Amino acid sequence: MHKHFIGVSMVVVVAFVAAITGAGAADAAPTPTSKTIPNSQPGWLTHGKNLGAASQNAPVNARVYLAPNGGVSALEAAAKAASNSNQYLTPAQYHAQFDATDAAVSAVSNWLTGSGLKVSVEANHRYVDAAGSVGAANKAFNVKISKYSHDGLTVQAPTGPASAPDNVAASVIAVSGLDTTVSVVAPATKKPSPPSDGFRNAPVCSHWYGDQTPATLPTPDGTVMPQLNGATLPYAPCGYTGPQLRGAYEAGAPAGLDGRGVTVAITDAYASPTIEADANRYAVDTGDQPFTAGQYSQVLPNAFTQVNANKSPHQCDASGWYGEQTLDVEAVHAMAPAANIRYYAGKSCQDADLLDTFSRINDEGIANIVTNSWGGLGDAVRPALFQAYEMAFLQGAVQGISYVFSTGDSGDEVGNLGTPETDYPASDPFVTGVGGTSTAITTAGVTGETGWQTTKYSITNGAWTPSIAFQYGGGGGYSSNIPEPDYQLAAGIQSPNGGRALPDVSMDADPTTGMLVGQTQGFGKTASYDSYRIGGTSLASPLFAGITALKIQASGHGLGLLNPKIYTDHSGFHDVSGAGIDAGNIRVDFANGVDAGGGYLYSVRSFNTTNTTLSVGSGWDSETGWGSARAGWLTPAQ
Question: Which residues of the chain, if any, have pLDDT below 50?
Fold first, then answer.
């Protein structure tokens, strides 16, 4: 299993502040006829080691991102206006209005070719790619490119900020590729990591929350009571199914709302070769209907790259993404059984390849909402990536496409970063960040709900003892890099540092109360289908996208930016308080991951541990946002 939200040396940037003008000036001061490209100096330079100038003949592959016609602020205004009025553009109308002009593309291309670089222009004028030598790049961008070592990597990067000539500077919003540091993303999925490739649930579990509570655990001496701090605890659910999840979240919804006529897009890296067959079998086995002909479709690249995780930290482990795709597809289908699902695969787990999926989604104009269960560690993302992501989200908003992201599975990220931080892209102000809850679902619906933050207890000397103080939990808190957006300020969200607050909303994510999924996996030398419980905010995002598909159906049109709607009227969300749920559940797992041959492992996974800076409270809170969606969310948007 991937470590959640791995970001390989994502460097610090505040994408909204003035351009860096002082740092590195001695090495690469802009000439009087040029202007600094905002935030183009690598943030890691302060701790990187300069190994000397790069060879003048070494290769450079740069990407120059172009400003939309009218500027970024005009596009932001158009996205907000479209979402407020529910008047959206087609992809063709968007490109006619906002693509960089031919004149701007020509000027940028002439600048780059004049320095000896070869250029190619993206079909819709999002960027210009420039390839050539270090010498040509030094001349074009007025930099000195050196070799560096930083954070265990050896890279090639400029010693200071890049610049562009006055006549093209307004058309350039970012540049990537001068710094060759690679960034990758990982899925936000949590399940046990057994020794074998495949994994199965142990059969000791509850069908509905809390319906199995043992008197003693089936340990050799049979003397350990299933109590934590004096409270008798039940076995964890076996994993909720589609009918259970719909009964919990969609109870009271108007008749006929099932996602019909709506298309939910899913993005991940790679593509499971058995996904449609697995999803159909899972649906039938759990009491739902399989996909009808054409209801599930895929958009795949010509080939996949970086598939072997053992070769380099920049590789991705394609098979590790298959379970993520399985969860996303089955969760959306569970919540919106009649919605179309269109899967867009990135050719690798690198940011640039996931960004390509957004370009395809926006330019096709088929999807109404996009769920994304992956991201990077923290939100100090490189400026070029930030600009590219945000341009994609804004194009989607202008066209009525909503983007939702998992907020991550590492709580406030203190364990990874040393200080509290949110994860990107979930923290982008133009997407909806979906956090996690621990959720008790019974025949009566959701009977208990709290924020997902887990401490793991193991049996030591006949008692439950904390073995992992903070095991995992839904991402949340306040960004140190992205300012609090206007819709949060208007709603009175008190951000202690002035940063973007997460999550916006939340859904079930705790692996202890997670979803049952079905997947073809490798068991030794053979592959076969089986089911297991899985969680993470990878579950929360597609659950929310699925129920929002019903709101889109009810509205009769796309919704574009969701957050202004949510923060203006959040009455359709259940305020998570922590009431009606136990202190934790007993988890019973096969020691070898697949059968009882190796015996069983017993643990208690607590609910809503206080070992992070996040907390649950009335109204919006840093663990669950405004809470989890209910039937009230399905009121048509006017």
Answer: 1-32, 193-196
